């Protein structure tokens, strides 16, 4: 395919552009150029990260002759097997005049990944904030629950309930909340990722595979751990409850 494009036998399109223009592999693509309408053959519809406008790939000779563009904004050099890429980069830098830039494939990949890493950093920061807020909310909920049930807890303590059992009772309630919340979050999260994998090809022009990993189970266990962490202060408060004061409440 690469050799056919470089030889000028046709062009390649991103999938979104092919869908927008309603062309398929083997169709003739009408292109209006300064030298009249050209009809290159569509050789392939490729997954390529492009948004809104799409991308057409053609040979450099075709671009120069059809669009009167003797220069190119970007040139890619493919090194032969065994070539020292560092030496090749240095030689190209010496040959290219400023203010042009020369960078290798690894730097280009890093530059393309940078916006994605920034987006992931923001997403991670958001879920960390959500976890913190959920922990505080659970702490407040269980604290209010203990305060509202002071008399019931006092009766249990007066009938021989130990402090340890009181702590376990509050922790069990928190664990139940964590298990239900973790299971619901796991189900909704996996469903969301599965649906996202179905639409990613249309949204970003490349498919994102759906492969559940151990991270999902780790986060589910983490939900239970966060619930237990948020229940620790209320559990200690319930264990230290004064029996006489609790029984005196109406």
Automatic annotation (TrEMBL):
**Mind listing the GO molecular function terms for this protein?**
transmembrane transporter activity
Q: Does the keyword Cytoplasm apply?
A: no
Subcellular compartments: Cell membrane
Q: Which InterPro entries match?
A: ABC3_permease_C (IPR003838), Macrolide_Exporter_MacB (IPR050250)
Keywords, alphabetical:
Cell membrane, Membrane, Transmembrane, Transmembrane helix
- Name the domain of life: Bacteria
- Transmembrane stretches in the record are 42-60, 125-147, 167-190, 210-230
Q: How does it sit in the membrane?
A: Multi-pass membrane protein
Its GO CC terms are: plasma membrane
Q: Which residues form the ABC3 transporter permease C-terminal domain?
A: 128-243
Keyword Membrane attached: yes
Which protein family is named in the record? Belongs to the ABC-4 integral membrane protein family.
What is the designated name of this protein?
ABC3 transporter permease C-terminal domain-containing protein
Name the species this protein comes from: Mycobacterium kansasii
């Amino acid at each position: 395919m690469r050799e056919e494009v470089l030889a000028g036998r046709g062009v390649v399109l991103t999938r979104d552009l092919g869908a927008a223009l309603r062309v398929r592999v083997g169709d003739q693509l009408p292109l209006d150029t300064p030298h009249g309408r050209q009809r290159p053959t569509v050789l392939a519809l490729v997954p390529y990260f492009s948004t809104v406008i799409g991308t057409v790939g053609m040979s450099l000779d075709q671009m120069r002759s059809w669009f009167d563009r003797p220069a190119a904004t970007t040139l890619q050099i493919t090194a032969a097997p065994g070539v020292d890429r560092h030496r090749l980069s240095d030689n190209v830098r010496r040959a290219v005049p400023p203010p042009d830039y020369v960078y290798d494939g690894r730097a280009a990949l890093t530059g393309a990944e940078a916006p994605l890493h920034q987006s992931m950093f923001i997403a991670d920061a958001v879920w960390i904030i959500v976890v913190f807020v959920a922990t505080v909310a659970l702490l407040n909920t269980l604290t209010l629950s203990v305060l509202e049930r002071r008399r019931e807890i006092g009766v249990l303590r007066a009938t021989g309930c130990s402090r340890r059992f009181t702590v376990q009772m509050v922790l069990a309630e928190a664990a139940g909340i964590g298990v239900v919340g973790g299971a619901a979050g796991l189900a909704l999260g996996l469903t969301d990722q599965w649906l996202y994998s179905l639409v990613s090809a249309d949204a970003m022009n490349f498919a994102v595979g759906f492969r559940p990993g151990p991270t999902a189970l780790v986060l589910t266990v983490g939900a239970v751990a966060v619930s237990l962490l948020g229940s620790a202060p209320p559990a200690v408060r319930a264990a230290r409850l004064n029996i006489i004061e609790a029984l005196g409440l109406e």
